[in-house]
Amino acid sequence: MPVTRRRRFVHANLAWLLATALVLALLDALTYELFFVVSLIGFLIVVELTAPFRVTPAWRRRLKWVILVGLLGFAYVVVQRIIAILPPEVL
After folding, report:
1. What is the pTM of this model?
2. Keywords of this protein's UniProt record, alphabetized (predicted)?
């Protein structure tokens, strides 16, 4: 039974997530924020590398909403980091 494109996409994402968790744990840098950011980067890379040339299936069109939520989460992480860096008198 051949592996469908959707399964290949899911397998690539799972491999990226596991590799990310393993490398961050080995580097003793595993935090929720860093895992989220590196996972989002990997997700975007997998989305681009597995994009079809001609016809876009319906399940791939729905990925834009997942990407939007991920980018909003990334913006939240960035704002939290900026707030943590700024001195209290600036806020």
Report:
1. 0.86
2. Membrane, Transmembrane, Transmembrane helix
